[in-house]
């Protein structure tokens, strides 16, 4: 048998048709239905057609974080982990977005040395004492704040495993205020995934 025929034969025997099912209480799902050939001859996917995906849950909540004049950095790992516990989601992802154009979210080792290093690096990336076109238009002194926040980014996606955030031993999630005044930052959190078995 030549190579193309082997591939065609493999593809023909090992295919699944996927169809929508009526959504259960907490969301939609997919089910696998047997191809005529799989039901008779298939071995690799034998029984897979019986699998039904668990419903995917979506949980969302807002948290507020009070921050001083920027760059100010606050550890929000505990608050996010508490939301994961509250959501009853065991496996999935957490998405957090800081609302506003002068705030950002990232991860670091939250200890005084690294926090100061990050502040210094942020100020080197977009120094407060430089001239910014934004300030020529608005005269609010925070042109650097917008640039700093844009470089770090307003959101983060993190894995949820066994009902907890999956982070490294020395990895914490931090919210950063880059503005030239204290701010209370709203952080929108959405957690999606499945319940425990």
Task: Describe the overall structure.
This protein is about 30% helix and about 30% strand. With about 200 residues, the chain is of the alpha+beta class. Strands 3-10-5-7-8 form a 5-stranded antiparallel sheet, with helices on one face. The protein has a 3-stranded antiparallel sheet with strand order 4-9-6, sandwiched between helices. Strands 1-2 form a two-stranded antiparallel sheet. A hairpin with a 2-residue loop joins strand 7 and strand 8. It is elongated. The two termini are about 45 Å apart.
Biggest pleated sheet: 5 strands, antiparallel
Radius of gyration: 24 Å
Roughly what is the average pLDDT, rounded to an integer?
Answer: 81
Our count of helices gives: 6
Strand order of the largest sheet: 3-10-5-7-8
Residues in helix, %: 25-40%
Q: What would the principal axes of the Cα set say about the shape?
A: elongated
Topology as a string of helices (H) and strands (E):
HEEHEEHEEHHHEEEE
Distance between the termini: 45 Å
The count of DSSP E runs of length 2 or more, i.e. the number of strands, is 10
Please identify the structural class as seen in this structure: alpha+beta
Strand content: 25-35%
Uncertain regions spanning at least 5 consecutive residues = 6-51
Short précis:
The protein is α+β, with helices and mostly antiparallel strands.
Question: Any key phrases for this structure?
Answer:
about 200 residues; alpha+beta; three-stranded antiparallel β-sheet; 6 helices
